[in-house]
Design brief:
The protein is mainly alpha-helical and 298 residues long. Helix content is 65%, strand content 0%. The longest helix is centred in the middle third of the chain and has 31 residues.
C-alpha cells in the first residue's frame, strides 16, 4: 500500500466525531458520563482515538439512533463487549423498555392526530376535548354552545376524565336545544353572581337564590331524562373502557378528583358559597316542604 494511503493509528476528536457522525461535544459528554473511557492524550495534550475507540463510538451512535438512552447504553456496555457474541444479552431488557416507549409515543401521536382531525372537522375548540365528548356535541346547532360551556367541559375532563365530561355534556346539550332552559339558566346564574362580597351569608337573597337554583336543576334533570340523554349516559357507563381515561390524558399525570378539586382556584364569595351549600341541602332533601322551611328560616 502506498504510504500516503496508510490510515493513521490514532485520530483527533474532530476526525473521530466526523467519521462516526456525531460532534466533539457529544464525545466529551460520553466521557463525562462514563460511556466511553477517555483515551490518553498525546504530546500536544489532545485526545487520540484508536480503532477500538471508534468501534465503541459506532455502537454508541447506532444504539442512540435507535432511541436507546445513553444511560441504558452505558449499562449494556458495563459487563459485555458491545461487538461480542454476548452483547445481545445485555440489551434485551433495554430493548423491551424501548419498545414500550415507542408504543406509547405512537399512541400519543395517534391521539394528537385524532385531535387535529377533530379540530379541522368541528372548526372550534370542541375538537380539543376527548373524542367521546366531541361526538356527543357534534350534532348541535352551530353557535348553540358557549365558551363558558366548553370551559366547564375542559375542567370536568381534567378532574373526572372523559367519561365524566361526556356525562356532563348532557347538561349543555339540553341547554343548547331548549331556549327556555337556557334563558332560565342565565337568570339563575346572574342571580348567583349578584351574591358578591357585599352580601351577607344570612341575607334572605341567599336562600332564595338557592331555592331557584334547586328548582332549575330539577327541571333541567327532568328534560335530560325525558329527552333520552340520561339513557345515553347510562350506555356510556356500561360500555366505558377505563383505559380510555389514560389515553385521553395526553401524557399528563393522572390525579384523583379530590386532589384536582383542591388545586382549582374558585373566586366565590361567602354568600355564594353558602348559596351552593343550601342548594345542595335541597338536593339531598328533595321536597317542596324542605324548600319552604329553608325560605322560612331565611
Amino acid at each position: 500500500m502506498h504510504p500516503s494511503f496508510i490510515p493513521p493509528r490514532q485520530v483527533k476528536i474532530g476526525d473521530a466525531a466526523a467519521f462516526v457522525g456525531t460532534t466533539p461535544r457529544a464525545i466529551r459528554h460520553y466521557h463525562e458520563i462514563g460511556l466511553l473511557p477517555e483515551p490518553e492524550r498525546g504530546g500536544d495534550d489532545r485526545r487520540r482515538y484508536g480503532y477500538d475507540d471508534m468501534i465503541r463510538l459506532l455502537w454508541i451512535r447506532t444504539m442512540a439512533d435507535a432511541g436507546i438512552a445513553l444511560d441504558d447504553i452505558r449499562d449494556a456496555f458495563a459487563d459485555t463487549d458491545p461487538a461480542g457474541p454476548s452483547a445481545d444479552d445485555g440489551v434485551v431488557e433495554i430493548l423491551d423498555r424501548l419498545e414500550r416507549t415507542i408504543d406509547a409515543r405512537e399512541a400519543e401521536l395517534r391521539r394528537q392526530r385524532a385531535a387535529v382531525q377533530r379540530m379541522r372537522t368541528e372548526g372550534s375548540r370542541i375538537g380539543l376535548l376527548s373524542d367521546v365528548v366531541t361526538s356527543r356535541l357534534k350534532d348541535l346547532p352551530e353557535g348553540s354552545l358557549r365558551q363558558a360551556d366548553l370551559d366547564d367541559l375542559l375542567v370536568t375532563e381534567r378532574v373526572l376524565g372523559p367519561l365524566g365530561a361526556a356525562v356532563r355534556a348532557s347538561r349543555f346539550i339540553a341547554l343548547a336545544t331548549h331556549r327556555d332552559l337556557r334563558e332560565e339558566s342565565d337568570r339563575v346564574d346572574a342571580a348567583e353572581e349578584a351574591l358578591d362580597d357585599t352580601v351577607a351569608v344570612d341575607d334572605p337573597r341567599v336562600a332564595r337564590v338557592a331555592a331557584e337554583r334547586h328548582s332549575f336543576e330539577a327541571r333541567l334533570h327532568a328534560v335530560i331524562e325525558e329527552s333520552g340523554l340520561a339513557q345515553g349516559d347510562e350506555a356510556l357507563f356500561e360500555s366505558w373502557d377505563p383505559a380510555l381515561d389514560e389515553a385521553a390524558g395526553g401524557g399528563q399525570k393522572a390525579m384523583s378528583a379530590f386532589e384536582a378539586f383542591g388545586k382549582i382556584p374558585y373566586d366565590v364569595s361567602p354568600a355564594r358559597l353558602r348559596c351552593m351549600e343550601l342548594a345542595a341541602e335541597l338536593d339531598t332533601h328533595g321536597t317542596a316542604a324542605s324548600r319552604s322551611e329553608l325560605l322560612d328560616d331565611a
